[in-house]
Structure prediction request, 311 residues.
Amino acid sequence: MHPISGVASCGAQSRPGGRSFRSSSAPPDLGHLATKSLGQVSSRTPRAAAGDRGRAVTDLPARPLAGRTALVTGSTRGIGRAVAGALATAGARVAVNSREERRAREVAEAIGGDCVGFGADLGHESGPSRLVEATLEALGWLDILVNNAGMAMAADSLELSRGDWQRTLDLDLSAVFFCSREAARHMTARGSGSIVNVSSIQAFTPLARRVAYAAAKAGVVGMTRALAAEWAPAVRVNAVAPGYVATPMVEELVRAGRVDPVAVAARTPMRRMARPEEIAAAVVFLASDAAGYVTGETLMVDGGWTSWAGI
Prediction:
């Protein structure tokens, strides 16, 4: 059984190095979650795991995005919230987005600086254009777009409805294109810009019952390459493909018994989930001049998941 499934258990499997691991079929003890991030849950002993904890994002040049503006879709929680905060820390003025305007403004205020918040449903036909227009009106111009908004969809492919298929593709694929198109119209006119799309390792190693999500995220990878070729040299277009990340949504799945964090750690060569801030660091890199000659690439931020067959 895969560590992310309807049952929170995993069969015996070999780790790199030849040792085997078998998780309990019982739900994991969640008492530690209040004090320990899922990004630190490891299949090793606590002492060994402590040495593998990721360091804080402090190695970047001071404020590499000073004077720039950024829009991050779906940025009030999880990876999107971390990305918005990291871009602001790097010096950018950031537009935060949620379906709910009130929530977007609350998060923008919490981030501070010159951040602004806008509500927009990007699954709706007019959502992308309205969001980009509002951002341009508030910030004056747009240097960076991060397409993070998305939804998960788990369903038996034989029973997947057309409506659920379409809703997933509308938000996870179509919205990425239409937000990118609206932003690129402005960026190409100015002669510069950077777009970073959030894909997933499921574009490369999909799970059962995730066909709509996997198809959309694979489409994002292909779209990233196609738009990079078309919009160069003015606009760079790249993507990140996160592995399993210790977000509030994943913590909810752990509590529901649908994710086994120890099994995920055992399957991941880095022996833990990522922290949202680690995905954000990759996005800041791709958005910055440090990646000025990088376009059309998908950066795997998965702790080695896709590098190992897991057998």
